[in-house]
Amino acid sequence: MPSTRAMLFLSSWCAMGCGDGKTGEPGGSTPVAQCTRENLTAAVDAYFHALEARDAASLAVTAGVKFTENGSPLALGEGLWQSAGRSQFRRSVLDTERCGTLTQAVLEENGGPIIFGVRLGLIEGKMAEIETYVARSTEFAFNPQGILDGAAQDWEDVLPSEQRSSREELNAAANAYFDLFQDRATVVPFGTPCDRWENGTQTTSGDCSAGIPGGLTMTGRRYPIADLERGIAVGFVLFSGSLLDFHMFKLKSGKIHLIQAVVGPRVSSSGW
């Protein structure tokens, strides 16, 4: 039997359209009635409530749910589920077309803060894909306080229609940014000003083209999530072929103005 929390989540989901139309797939097309901003937010809330309670069994998941932590496939309930504390901050990207979410967060673990990221892919209200990133104090530029200090950044406001970009435009901007690390002649649609934070450390002062070394290849690129209403692209890569990484890009009128990156440990694969 599903837990009470899972049943409440599914009830909330179905009240907003569960069962209307065809079953969706993570990374594919899902009827809007099944996948609104409200029920995606409910899914994120359910995940973090369960994580903070260390109660993975309370989640509504598919029979074949895939769960990874820092590129390693695990059973749901292993890894950070054994040590997570309360969340201090969350910032979410909601993809109503592909029925997925991406959340950047700061969590407590064993009395100290960690930087966390989770991508959820849903099918009819159940979590089918759970991809998690955990950056601890040994990781690159680790500064969770910098994320907390930037809590008021303009990420979650819905853009007026004239400032929005298509999914293809959002992903092309992200892809150009990653190309820039290998080819400094790449044209990237940076706005003015534009600033970047990497694991909470601000690495620019108004110019996002600054501080980018050349000769680095970003491998394993994936773009499973985009928030068209908010103008956010998300790119998953192995930074320089080895560091687990995702970047969030906030665009307005086709220009990148904010970048947030979560950088994890060295891995051989993202697991996806």
Can you walk me through this structure?
The protein is an alpha+beta fold. The chain folds into two domains: 4-136, Nuclear Transport Factor 2, Chain: A (Roll); 161-266, Nuclear Transport Factor 2, Chain: A, CATH 3.10.450.50. Helix content is 18%, strand content 38%. Strands 7, 8, 9, 10, 11, 12 and 13 form a seven-stranded mixed sheet that branches. A six-stranded mixed sheet has the order 2-1-6-5-4-3. Strand 12 and strand 13 form a beta hairpin. Helix 1 (4-15) runs antiparallel to helix 2 (37-53). The longest helix is centred in the N-terminal third of the chain and has 17 residues, at 37-53. The chain is globular, with a radius of gyration of 18 Å. The two termini are 30 Å apart. Mean pLDDT is 90; it is low at 1-25 and 27-32.
Explain the layout of strands and helices.
Elements: H1 4-15, H2 37-53, E1 61-69, E2 72-73, E3 84-95, E4 100-109, E5 112-123, E6 126-135, H3 144-149, H4 167-180, E7 190-198, E8 201-202, E9 219-222, E10 226-227, E11 232-239, E12 243-252, E13 255-266
Parallel strand pairs: 1-6, 7-13
Antiparallel strand pairs: 1-2, 3-4, 4-5, 5-6, 7-8, 9-11, 10-11, 11-12, 12-13
Helix pairs in contact: 1-2
Short description:
The protein has 272 residues and is α+β, with helices and mostly antiparallel strands. It contains four helices and 13 strands. The two termini are 30 Å apart.
